[in-house]
Design brief:
Elements: E1 2-5, E2 8-13, E3 18-23, H1 25-40, E4 52-57, E5 62-67, H2 73-76, E6 90-97, E7 103-107, E8 113-114, H3 119-130, E9 137-139, E10 160-162, H4 163-172, H5 176-184, H6 190-203, E11 222-223, H7 225-235, H8 239-245, E12 249-254, E13 257-262, E14 274-283, E15 287-296, E16 299-308, H9 313-328, H10 336-342
Antiparallel strand pairs: 1-2, 2-5, 3-4, 6-7, 6-16, 8-11, 9-10, 12-13, 14-15, 15-16
Helix pairs in contact: 3-7, 4-5
GO molecular function: serine-type D-Ala-D-Ala carboxypeptidase activity
EC number: 3.4.21.-
Keywords: Cell shape, Cell wall biogenesis/degradation, Hydrolase, Peptidoglycan synthesis, Signal
């Protein structure tokens, strides 16, 4: 039988557990004979032991879960039915060489989709270019509480952290309240910050991109894989954003407590990956998202994965792309003349 459980298709085969009990026929006859003798001669009591064999038959129940894509905007638009030689679980993807701008792989790269917390990369870029003091203390307020998706946070109203720590948490741990506080404390507040985000997108040529808030919790924050590759390249030019986005963890003092925050990208802690900048994102409308700059196969690559179906599928897609790039797109070794010219 099959049933849908939380977006997962479950196949279950059920069988019973049976207990079979058998008794020896000879023992039964002997028991009856003994009983008759006991009635005839009560003084000569005899006890007969009847042996029983008990056999337990146990069968296992097998339940197999098959994960199905969430009903994201991209899935509803049919992006996951696109023919894909790499069999990626992402509805849209783009891989390009950062130096030459050669496109190595493209799948629905012009589709405009919700981008979730990838929005925080633009938030961080605008904050970094505002040159506000990173050591200035900001405070989390009720205005920073998420009323869009009702997500939780360890940064309670009244928490005071420096702008630098807020920026670090927004990039590394995708902290929504920190990102909103950064925008709220921008000169002119959110009313000025959101236009600044859109102005920066337009300046970079990201014509398919639009922001309505700094966290990405709204599905109205939209972009394309092509535009996001441009954003990754621009953000990668800022050393602070490279550092903050690739930190595995950070200890933060919250009042009297010291709390450890971690990266949302498990590839950051993987020693086989050389990641220069990254950002993850997820809301139901956007699916699982991941952008990064990484070095592999002798190349500096920018990778964008949008609307990936499944909790770990964006990581699996990144690994699949790396294997494919390493096998098919390794940068050619420099010639002897080129090496001489470089020296």
């Amino acid at each position: 039988m099959s049933c849908a459980v939380g977006g997962a298709l479950v196949f279950a085969s059920f069988s019973s557990s049976a207990t079979v009990t058998s008794s020896s026929t000879a023992a039964s006859k002997h028991h009856r004979k003994v009983a008759a003798t006991a009635h005839a001669a009560p003084r000569a009591k005899r006890v007969a032991m009847v042996s029983r064999r008990t056999t337990t038959v146990t069968t296992r129940t097998t339940v197999r879960f098959i994960e199905t894509p969430s009903q994201s905007v991209g899935y509803a638009a049919g992006l996951h039915s696109t023919e894909d030689p790499l069999l990626l679980r992402s509805g849209a993807a783009l891989v390009l060489d950062q130096d030459t701008h050669e496109v190595l792989y493209s799948k629905n790269s012009e589709a405009v989709l919700p981008i979730a917390s990838l929005s925080k990369l633009m938030t961080a870029l605008v904050i970094s270019e505002a040159h506000q003091p990173l050591d200035e203390v900001l405070e989390i307020t009720n205005d920073d509480i998420d009323t869009e998706k009702n997500t939780s946070s360890r940064l309670r109203p009244g928490t005071q952290l420096t702008r630098g720590v807020m920026l670090h948490l927004a990039l590394m741990s995708s902290e929504n309240r920190a990102a909103n506080a950064l925008g709220r404390n921008y000169p002119g507040g959110l009313a000025a910050f959101i236009p600044a985000m859109n102005a920066k997108a337009h300046e970079l040529g990201m014509l398919d991109t639009h922001y309505v808030e700094p966290t990405g919790l709204s599905s109205q924050n939209k972009s394309s894989a092509r535009d996001l590759a441009v954003l990754v390249n621009a953000a990668h030019q800022v050393p602070l954003l490279r550092e903050y986005s690739t930190t595995p963890s950070l200890d933060v003092e919250l009042g009297r407590r010291q709390v450890q925050f971690h990266t949302t990208d498990r590839l950051v802690a993987n020693p086989t990956w050389d990641i220069g900048l990254q950002k993850t994102g997820f809301i139901n409308e956007a699916g699982q998202c991941l952008v990064m700059q990484a070095q592999m196969a002798g190349r500096k690559l920018i990778m964008v994965l949008l609307d990936s179906a499944g909790k770990y599928s964006r990581i699996a897609d990144a690994e699949r792309i790396r294997k494919w790039v390493t096998s098919n797109h390794t940068a050619p070794a420099p010639t002897a003349r080129a090496a001489t010219d470089a020296s």
